[in-house]
Amino acid sequence: MDAVFKALADPTRRGLLDALFEQDGQTLGALEQRPAMTRFGVMKHLKVLEDAGLVLTRRRGREKLHFLNAVPIRLVHDRWVSKYAEPWVATLSELKREMEADGMEKIFEIYIKTTPERLWEAITRDELRQKYHFGVGVVSDWTPGSGYQSVHPATASVISEGENLEVDRPRKLVQTFTALWGEDVKRAGTSRVTWEIETVADSCRLTVTHDELPPDADSALYGGWPMVLSGLKTLLETGETLTTPGSLLYAPGPQPGGVRPPDESTHTMGVSYERPF
User: Which of 93, 96, 137, 265 registers the highest number of CB atoms within 10 A of its CB?
Assistant: First the structure.
């Protein structure tokens, strides 16, 4: 986490993160328009932010776009802040909003010390998924073109569903995603979630891209990804589950801080704690 703290210590770099918070997916040319910033200066600071995992880049034709990655800050939150903060404080997991004419795209990246096979199993196995995904599992035969459903054992309703567009075990999984837990998220229609696994030395880099979202998409559709990925990392590296409010959303019995799990009609995967995907 030293690289994250180093990156955040500089006000100029925080300014670049603020710029991506306001409008994600910017080019180098757009970012260098900030006052008193040269092209070389922007490139230098972006390199530090990329090394810390706070900024991700993607090619779109001839352009290189920069995206804010909330996961490293979520990990800082889970290690320290959540032990002392009020139970419902999870605003650090939702660092950005964007309004784009061609839809919204959210990208999250995390490094996990595990093998691609174990990571794939944790993503696709129902009982493992429940341990880090707000208690919600997933059921599918994981063949290309097959369907999947996200269901919690304590409820009879389907929370989300979709189609497995591409299944390349253990490297890539592309799915459509339709949220069904409330009328507000149902209005967003169908979006797409891509899981990409890449081996890096003795670890894996997991990149989750949630795109084809409407420009005004409810943050409950994507706001919980940092907590989900933090829980996945914790499970695979330690065998334990997180004790953050969202991770305990469906846990039976008393919870830390006197948090009572919400009833079926009010839980969430985003910061407002409605129902999770």
Answer: 93
Model-wide pTM > 0.70: no
The three-class DSSP label of residue 4 is: helix
Q: Is the pLDDT assigned to residue 260 strictly greater than 60?
A: no
| CATH T-level assignment (fold) for domain 1-68 | Arc Repressor Mutant, subunit A (1.10.10)
Examine the pLDDT at 246 and tell me if it is beyond 60: no
pLDDT in tens, 51-82: 999 999 988 888 899 999 978 887 777 777 65
CA distance 34 to 117: 44
Can you give the pLDDT at residue 202?
94
CA angle 239/152/141 to nearest 5° reads 80
Location of each CATH 3.30.530.20 domain in the chain: 69-277
| Cβ neighbours of residue 12 closer than 8 Å, sequence gap 6 or more | 37, 41, 45
Given a contact cutoff of 8 angstroms between Cβ atoms, the answer to whether 72 and 53 are in contact is yes
CATH architecture of 69-277: 2-Layer Sandwich (3.30)
Instruction: Count Cα neighbours of 20 within 13 Å in the Cβ-side half-sphere.
Output: 27
> 91 to each of 127, 219, 227, 273, how far by Cα in Å?
28, 11, 11, 11
For residue 36, how many other CB atoms are within 10 A of its CB? 7
